[in-house]
Amino acid sequence: MRLIFQDQTFSFELLRTLSYAPYGGADIGECLSTAYRIKEGDFESWYTEWYRTAERIHELAVDSLERGKRVSARECYLRAHNYYRTAEFFLHGNPKDPRILETWGKSRSTFRQAIKLMDTSVEEVAIPYEGTYLPGYYYRVDDTPRPTLLIHGGFDSTGEELYLEVAAAALQRGYNCLTFEGPGQGAVIREQHIPFRYDWEKVVTPVVDYLLTRPDVDPDRIALMGISLGGYLAPRAAAYEHRLAACIANDGLFSNQFGEIARKLHRGNDEDLNNPAYVEKFLEVLTSQYTGVRWAIENGMFTYQAESVHELIRKTEPVTLEGVAHKIKCPTLVCEAEADHFFAGQPKMLYDALTCPKTFMLFTAEDGAEEHCHFGALLYFNQRVFEWLDETLDIK
């Protein structure tokens, strides 16, 4: 699927931003007019134009709020939040770039303005974690104990974005929902400077502990969803955290080792990849040719706090479910996107390694849902996933 850009990475990120329109996070014309102003493959042009759009919509939100127009203000704040997030996306090549905190900060603050204006009860929560805290949002239907969906993102998502991707759909179906950011994600990497860790059960267990303190959570019906890299992280957590009633991998990911990725892209003697200097030079050439490779390495070094590509490769070596997947006990849903340019073949590897009750769910081009994490078809994705979850948790 190509949308305006021939560059696959730019096209996909535009599709991602646009996909939140059904849940109030984008307007089609705003996204397309912004994209037409962007120079193909140019990270600076991407930032400039999305930031320009975000600022314009932010001003509309402020104006509406000042005039007492609550619904209009909420809608504009939600869209501004998404556009600021999109603007910041490609800035991570220089972790000291002040625009990272400034632009991401505006994405968070505009979202927090929006939730103050929602009809649904939304709480900002701080979950105790290893001497600090994990930031999250708790979305509550009412005061009665309900099935609760715990959601985290992956390699590049933010906790605020998760409302538009899944939480809004969960609320519509009567689920309470807790979205949170862990190490390597959102505020935890940007403000607390805590990088990704492979043993994600150490992250999810404190979150489950927190949920079980709440009287509005049904303790027997807590489900976990991980998105993108979360398709590895959530199953990893479920292998050791057995209080979960279900696990959803969107999309399934068996391994995300940068060394493995480098080997797949390499056309020469793989023995050369044992030489750090050679690897640096090899990937330098790739980043000059492929926007997606450049972004993946820059964001990887940012979120893993790696000083070199060789260190990034070393830090991601443990990111595999080999010898782990069979420990999952709860029913698990593995999603696959037919044309996923990130995870090709990975969901089937995860599914085959599972010994728990399991379901494989393929999303196709015929559905318009073939892209990574099914962007472009979130209404359809949420329909299928929540129908599976209703059945799994015996919700009538």
TrEMBL record:
The keyword Oxidoreductase does not apply. The keyword Hydrolase applies. Pfam families: Abhydrolase_6 (PF12697). This is Alpha/beta fold hydrolase. One of its GO terms (molecular function) is hydrolase activity. The lineage of its organism: Bacteria, Bacillati, Bacillota, Bacilli, Bacillales. Signal peptide: none annotated. Gene3D superfamilies: acylaminoacyl peptidase, alpha/beta hydrolase. Residues 149-289 form the AB hydrolase-1 domain. Belongs to the AB hydrolase superfamily. FUS2 hydrolase family. Keywords: Hydrolase.
